[in-house]
Amino acid sequence: MLLPSHPGWDTATVTTPSLHTAAVILTGGTGARLGGADKATIEIAGLTLLEHALGATAGAREVVVVGPQVPTSRPVTWAREDPPGGGPAAGLLAGVRALASTPDLVCALAVDMVRFSARTLDRLVAAVSVAPTEQPPDGACLVDGAGRLQWLAGVYRYAALMAAAPDGRESEHGLPMRRLVLPLRVVPVPAVGDEAHDLDTWEDLAHLRETGR
Question: Is 135 within a domain?
Answer without folding.
Answer: yes
